[in-house]
Amino acid sequence: MSPPEIRPLGPADVANVVAFFDRVPVGDKTFFKETVEGAGTVESWLADQRSLRLLALDLDGAVIGYVAVIPGVGWSSHVAELRLVVEPTRRGEGVGRKLARAGLAAAVDAGLSKVVVEVVAEQVSTIALFQGLGFVAEALLEDHVLDATGRLTDLIVLSNRATDTWATMATVGLDTVLD
After folding, report:
1. Alpha carbon distance 88, 72 (integer Å)
2. How distant, in Å, are the alpha carbons of 27, 97, 159, 165 from that of 134?
3. How large is the greatest C-alpha to C-alpha distance in the chain, in angstroms?
4. CATH number of 5-171
5. What is the pLDDT of residues 150-165, one digit of tens each?
6. From the DSSP assignment, how many helices (H) and strands (E) are in the chain?
7. Which of 14, 79, 89, 96 minimizes the number of CB atoms within 10 Å of its CB?
8. What is the 3-state secondary structure (H, E, C) of 26-52?
9. Rounded-to-integer distance, Cα 106 and Cα 127, Å
10. Structural domain boundaries in the chain
11. For residues 80 and 83, what is the distance between their CA atoms, to the nearest angstrom?
């Protein structure tokens, strides 16, 4: 597989992004923090000047991944939340890692010093992906997520003190996003 193109969400992407989220299994959507249905949702993202949303595109221009960098407000204005979704058929190919790296770099470029991600505890490969990018477990919230079947699941909050990580990488000459 060819590496995906990573670029910001734009107005021309609305239908393609809606189609992408329509392909995400209902079980995965249980873990979304916001309803992601229809063009109205995507258009509201475009109007949001605070957040950054990036897409991963395959060679045909189809969306195969999405990452959002959502800055906090008030006393958490130095923190961003990262939200990552990858096309189910493309998981395990490095798309998520590439998007997560791009999101982390975007957070640093935006002057945010800490990035957090929330992961359902049973998503071991997703936790490993973020740990490989320097994220560390910061909290375990027991029975925090209620899935569509009514089952309670633990949630892990991982964090990356992004500016510290980037400063270290810059010191050794690795301060660009790697593929």
Report:
1. 29
2. 28, 12, 8, 7
3. 48
4. 3.40.630.30
5. 899 999 999 999 877 6
6. 6, 7
7. 89
8. HHHHCCCCCCCCHHHHHHHHHHCCCCE
9. 20
10. 5-171
11. 10
